[in-house]
């Protein structure tokens, strides 16, 4: 009887949507963890669906608890079951008695705003560990698109508006930037694909704020693009050389600060001149509206939010397919 129960426990019979619902871990993240860390080994149904066992679900719940305690996926993915259980027990024992910042599981109707509010509170309190913990929880519970659109992008907007209005200090901004940078790097890395269309992301010379470009990189990665992130403040010549060398179909730029800058306009014009014909320039960021005239002049695609980034990428992908035929 026990043998039969054991066989059933390890039988691969649950599709990914069921696993996602039972664990609260998004399907995007499940796939990324499998591909990057080999966390699980699902079988395939005759129709090609991933199938998981009860044991897989239990392992995911343990991993989820470890991450909520502040561990990173790379630290726990390769652990044997017994070692993972011991680690989780140790972490939970150490945290016993601490005030819980937020429940481990959330409900879709209100989780976006709850995560955003918790992140803002963490920044206001200079609590980088809590901010990292809340973003980690959001990353586990939400699909990658929702994490970007409803938590990370609004958090960046709040930071930018607060900095301009003087509601937050440079210390707040730097603390948040360090944590968000790690989150975006991790997300983009986990979603990385080798065989998608290539996009280069960066900021032009003089534009030092890089989080907008990193957000664009993550958004493109969720759409199956092979993203090459070059960092911040690159001159037009360097951006163009990287674009040509990688065969990138598009260049995504973030313009945050300064607004209305003649040097930035010159860089945008120079980039257009140096890029191969047919290479799209996609531009977003808080200051991008002040460059509307030059963006129109160089034929750039101007974005207002991360959701419009996806429409732009679809357009570039389609136009590129037409040219290849």
TrEMBL record:
All copies of domain B12-binding, residue ranges: 196-323
SUPFAM superfamilies: Cobalamin (vitamin B12)-binding domain (SSF52242), Putative DNA-binding domain (SSF46955)
Superkingdom of this protein's organism: Bacteria
Pfam families: B12-binding (PF02310), B12-binding_2 (PF02607), MerR_1 (PF13411)
Record-annotated membrane-spanning stretches: none
Record key words, sorted: DNA-binding, Transcription, Transcription regulation
GO molecular function, one term: DNA binding
Domain HTH merR-type stretches: 13-82
InterPro entries, alphabetized: Cbl-bd_cap (IPR003759), Cobalamin-bd (IPR006158), Cobalamin-bd_sf (IPR036724), DNA-bd_dom_put_sf (IPR009061), MerR-type_HTH_dom (IPR000551), MerR_fam (IPR047057), Meth_synthase_dom (IPR036594)
CDD domains: B12-binding_like, HTH_MlrA-CarA
Protein's name in the database: MerR family transcriptional regulator
